[in-house]
Each structure stands twice: as structure tokens, then as C-alpha cells.
Design a protein that fits this description.
- It contains 8 helices and 14 strands.
- It is of the alpha/beta class and 225 residues long.
- It is globular.
- Keywords: DNA-binding, Phosphoprotein, Transcription, Transcription regulation, Two-component regulatory system.
- This is Response regulator transcription factor.
């Protein structure tokens, strides 16, 4: 998953980042209103963890901006504001969930997973595309009766491709989703080619057709023959 954490409290921010990155997720941060607005305007995320009380502005305004931009990112409000009015305002503005501080990180993860599952996997923990079945909790990929042995990046690539099947995905979008915004500093995408080449090879050896189509000069599209 690619997550944006908008949180100014240092200790909480660091603990959340350590928890999610320790499980192999891409986590980016924004520590104030201005940097959060910049991030949501440029990048897409599986889930945004949004604090409401931020230096420079209110998190509710960030949520309004997301909706004005018609962004599809999941949003989980994490806030010490515990009034019913705050919860209703956030949910009515389009947040997917609202979690009151303090909270257990395991509950935060469960709620993030529930949001991503609803938005990307049709509410199921198992993603299916033709003969490919992905158990997103076990992170296991089966092709018919054969279990694929994938690296973490190959697994993330496949999940991202299937979540966006039929769409043209630019190399830049692919790199940002899987490696975060630090990828902006890279001047070539040769490492992407290597991961895609390896993923394609493993899938075809397991009996899949070549679902990954190269779109010359643009990127890739994952689709049936």
C-alpha cells in the first residue's frame, strides 16, 4: 500500500511510519497544511491518514480539496476531536472512516485495510483476475494450482496492475506508487523494467498469457488477450 500520513505530532507520526513501513508499505508524510495540500495535488495514495488540527490550517479543508479534485484516495481521519459533530462533518465531507486518538496501531491498520479492501478489492481479501488469485492478507499469489514466489516489489506490481487493469499506467505513476515521491529524484526507470521483466517471466512460466502490455513511450496496460 501507498499511504500518506498527515500528522504534525512527531512521536505519533514516527510510530505510525515505523509500523507501516515495517510491513513493507510505502509511507509518505506531510507535517502541516501547506505540505499536505501540495502532496494530495501531485500524488495518489491507497489511503490518507488525516489529522484535523494542523499547523497552517484545518484538516477538514484538506478533505474538501480532495473532493473538489475528485480524488479517489481513501481517507481515514485520525483526530483527538471526539465530538459527534466533528465525526459527522468528516464523514459527510467524504472521509471513509474516523478514528479518535489515542488508538492502537493494530486497530489503525485494520481500519486502513478495510478502506483499501472496499475501494480496490470489492470488499474482499482475495483479488481474482482470470486464473490469478491473490490473497491480500497472506500476500500469496496463485495461478491455477501453482503458487508464485514473488519478491515484495513484484507482488506490489501485480496488485497495482490488477487494481488498475484495463488502464494505461505511466512509468512515472508506477514508480511513484511503488517507491514513493523520492522517485522524483531518479533520472531513469531502468529498475522498473527489471521488476516487470521478472514478474512477466514468472507469470508466463506458471501458465499465464502475457497480460502486461507495453505502451510505447507511455507505460503499461494490464489486460486480457
Amino acid at each position: 500500500m501507498k499511504i500518506l500520513l498527515i500528522e504534525d505530532e512527531v512521536s505519533l507520526r514516527e510510530s505510525i511510519i515505523a509500523y507501516f513501513t515495517g510491513e513493507g508499505n510505502i509511507c509518505e508524510t506531510a507535517v502541516d497544511f501547506k505540505s499536505a495540500i501540495e502532496k494530495i495535488g501531485i500524488y495518489n495514495y491507497d489511503c490518507i491518514l488525516l489529522d484535523l488540527t494542523l499547523p497552517g490550517g484545518d484538516g477538514m479543508e484538506i478533505l474538501r480539496n480532495l473532493k473538489k479534485m475528485n480524488k479517489k484516495d481513501g481517507v481515514l481521519i485520525i483526530s483527538a476531536r471526539h465530538s459527534l459533530d466533528d465525526k459527522l462533518d468528516g464523514l459527510n465531507l467524504g472521509a471513509d472512516d474516523y478514528l479518535i486518538k489515542p488508538f492502537h496501531l493494530s486497530e489503525l491498520k485494520a481500519r486502513v485495510m478495510a478502506i483499501v479492501r472496499r475501494k480496490s478489492y470489492n470488499g474482499s481479501n482475495v483479488m481474482v483476475f482470470n486464473e490469478i488469485s491473490i490473497d491480500t492478507l497472506a500476500m500469496r499469489v496463485d495461478v491455477a494450482d501453482h503458487t508464485l514466489i514473488l519478491t515484495r516489489k513484484e507482488y506490489d506490481l501485480l496488485v497495482y496492475f490488477i487494481s488498475n487493469r484495463g488502464k494505461v499506467i505511466s512509468k512515472n505513476a508506477l514508480a511513484e506508487h511503488l517507491w514513493g515521491d523520492e522517485i522524483d529524484l531518479v533520472d531513469h526507470f531502468d529498475f522498473i523494467y527489471t521488476h516487470i521483466k521478472n514478474l512477466r517471466k514468472k507469470m508466463m512460466e506458471a501458465g499465464c498469457p502475457d497480460y502486461i502490455k507495453s505502451m510505447y513511450g507511455i507505460g503499461y496496460k494490464f489486460e486480457s488477450q
